[in-house]
């Protein structure tokens, strides 16, 4: 299926976000989606939790610029531990 112009624009805008801007965008999405059920965890190089939903689900966002499945698995295992 072909991507719409709006989808392309949104994807391109998100891909350009870096570091704190990406973090803020993700926090905004979760706040818009889950409103008062989402607790934002302040970024402090925690290498893990970015937020909590319903006091039971931990959200960890990971978006490296270069994709490497081995590093991704290592990061997920580290965060989970």
Write the layout of secondary structure elements.
Blueprint: H1 5-15, H2 19-34, E1 38-40, E2 51-53, E3 57-59, H3 69-80
Antiparallel strand pairs: 1-2, 2-3
- Please estimate the helix content: 40-55%
Count of DSSP H/I helices: 3
Low-confidence stretches: none
Total number of β-strand segments?
A: 3
Mean pLDDT: 85
Largest sheet: 3 strands, antiparallel
Distance from N terminus to C terminus (CA atoms, Å) equals 39 Å
Number of folding domains? 1
Provide the succession of SSEs. Answer: HHEEEH
Strand percentage: 5-15%
Rg over CA atoms, rounded to whole Å, is 14 Å
Query: What class, by secondary structure content?
Result: mainly alpha
* Physical arrangement of strands within the biggest beta sheet: 1-2-3
Shape descriptor reads: globular
Can you walk me through this structure?
With 81 residues, the protein is mainly alpha-helical. The chain has one domain. It has three helices and three strands; from the N terminus they run H-H-E-E-E-H. The chain has helices at residues 5-15, 19-34, 69-80, and strands spanning 38-40, 51-53, 57-59. A three-stranded antiparallel sheet has the order 1-2-3, covered by helices on one side. A hairpin with a 3-residue loop joins strand 2 and strand 3. It is globular and about 40 Å long. The model has no long low-confidence stretch (mean pLDDT 85).
């Amino acid at each position: 299926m072909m991507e719409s112009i709006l989808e392309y624009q949104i994807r391109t805008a998100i891909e350009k976000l870096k570091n704190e801007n990406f973090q803020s965008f993700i926090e905004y999405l979760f706040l818009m989606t889950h409103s008062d059920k989402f607790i934002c965890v302040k970024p402090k190089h925690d290498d893990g939790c970015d937020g909590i939903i319903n006091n039971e689900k931990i959200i960890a966002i990971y978006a490296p610029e270069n994709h490497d499945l081995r590093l991704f698995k290592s990061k997920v295992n580290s965060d989970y531990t």
